[in-house]
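User: My instructor asked us to take a sequence, write out its structure as tokens, and then describe one feature of it. I'm not sure where to start. Here is the sequence I was given:
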Amino acid sequence: MQKDFTFWGYGVGAEALTHPSWGKPHYQRLEFLGDKVLGAAVAELLVERFADADEGELSRRHTALVRESTLVDVAARYEVGPYVRLGPGEPLKPAIMADVVEAILGDIGSKHGPAAVRAVVAEAWAPYLDQKDEKDPKTRLQEIVQGQGHPLPTYNVVTEAGPDHDKTFTVEVRTAMGTATGTAGTKQNAGAAAAAELMNQLEITR
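Assistant: Let's start with the prediction itself. The structure tokens for your sequence are:
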């Protein structure tokens, strides 16, 4: 496996592609940076493209563009997977692919600055910018519950498993209309999965 690969003309170092199971240096610091610069770049692009959108719409669009499923799709489109360095027996999970994409952006940002990240995001995220504006499951469930006159949903972590670099969370959502659980690599995504599962049980279309 080669140590570097090119993402929109920028060479990406091996650190951004190295999972903690492989060893150090790994991608977690670059992932942290990438999460921040991606969020800022997406916010700027949305404000420019949707000049008449209010804060709520912009927020929902932003959530859709930075969530795990979008990052995983970007990773697949640019064939990032073969370059990721994993320790023995470590599966290439979707959550890892999403982390690596953020780390790649962090690597580009640390070497070339936020303007370079913005240019990359403007191109790589272009297919998603005009996607249908759908509310995330937690927001949708909250609106449904409130619309029925019930108290807000509550979310609680019921299990937390795995090493620090590869946690898995199971979150339970409770409402007056029912309960459900969801499992994912972050508490936020697990909560969203729980909300989506409850709406499925209630046969509610998002």
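For the description part of your assignment, you could build on this observation: The helical segments are 28-49, 55-66, 68-77, 94-112, 114-124, 126-129, 137-147, 187-201. Try explaining in your own words what that tells you about the chain.
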